[in-house]
Amino acid sequence: MTRWLRWVPAIAIAGTIVYLSSLSPRELPGPEEILGWDKLLHFAAYAALAAAARFASPRTFWVLLAVALFGVSDELHQRFTPGRDSSGWDLLADVAGAAVALGVWRLVTLPGTTQSRVT
């Protein structure tokens, strides 16, 4: 697979996050209707984003930093979206999801494979 094609899943997930962040709360089902916990949704979305980005890049630290900065930009974006607000707790859930996904990735990836444990 070419190097650039490996980024398609991460770009698609990031685009979905931006799209959902652009919707007003009236256009979204309430978190209680989905899973009952808003932070779990943030955690899962950013875990998926981090895993997809890690699939594309072997640099775990830089992936975590990029996903965290994307989370910051998403919270700033929501500050200017009518009916939405930004939250440090949401950002914490975003970064926690990314960190857990990258930690799991590191634990299950064996040395000598194409996705080396060395970052």
Please provide a written account of the structure.
The structure is a single chain. By secondary structure, the protein is an all-alpha fold. It has one domain. The protein is built from five helices and no strands. The chain has helices spanning 8-22, 31-34, 38-56, 60-79, 88-108. Helix 3 packs across helix 4 (60-79) and helix 4 (60-79) runs antiparallel to helix 5. The model has no long low-confidence stretch (mean pLDDT 85).
Proportion of helical residues:
55-70%
Radius of gyration: 15 Å
What is the global morphology?
globular
Mean pLDDT comes to: 85
Task: List the domain count as a whole number.
Answer: 1
**Biggest sheet details:** none
User: Which series of helices and strands comes N to C?
Assistant: HHHHH
Residue stretches low in confidence (pLDDT < 50, at least 5 long) are none
Q: What structural class do the secondary elements suggest?
A: mainly alpha
Q: Please state roughly what percent of the residues sit in beta strands, choosing from under 5%, 5-15%, 15-25%, 25-35%, 35-45% or over 45%.
A: under 5%
Write the layout of secondary structure elements.
Blueprint: H1 8-22, H2 31-34, H3 38-56, H4 60-79, H5 88-108
Helix pairs in contact: 1-3, 1-4, 3-4, 3-5, 4-5
Give a quick set of tags describing it:
5 helices; 119 residues
Please summarize what this structure is.
The protein has 119 residues and is an all-alpha fold. It has helices at residues 8-22, 31-34, 38-56, 60-79, 88-108.
